[in-house]
Specification:
alpha+beta, 111 residues, single chain, 3 helices, 4 strands
Length: 111
């Protein structure tokens, strides 16, 4: 599965193989996303009930990843191809270098 972003008229555009969903209406029998009026309450309820919140860690990670990729594409001013399984950009050392940075000495892991 590949995602790519590119800048167009000052905007970062998202492209993926899921483009078939654009313009599709969600029907009564289709799967719907849970609506939350209060994420904080939902999170605390999930702790109390030992259930998953509506936005668990995996969903939060994927949402943050998409935002970061868009920022990287904007900063580099070019399209990027992301591999979500490997969590790396395809054949792009410059973009992959943005995924992490060296730790400062006081925060380095000492072994």
């Amino acid at each position: 599965m590949a995602m790519s972003f590119q800048k167009y008229k000052g905007m970062a555009l998202f492209h993926s193989h899921f483009s078939w969903v654009i313009g599709k209406l969600i029907g009564a029998t289709d799967k719907h996303v849970y609506k939350s009026e209060n994420h904080y309450k939902d999170f605390l309820d999930a702790i109390r009930k030992r259930t998953k919140p509506i936005c668990d860690v995996e969903i939060g990670h994927r949402i943050a990843t998409v935002c970061n990729i868009a920022n990287f594409a904007y900063a580099l001013q070019r399209p990027l191809n992301w591999n979500p399984k490997k969590e790396k950009f395809k054949k792009d050392k410059e973009a992959n270098a943005l995924l992490s940075w060296p730790m400062l000495n006081e925060w380095a892991i000492k072994m």
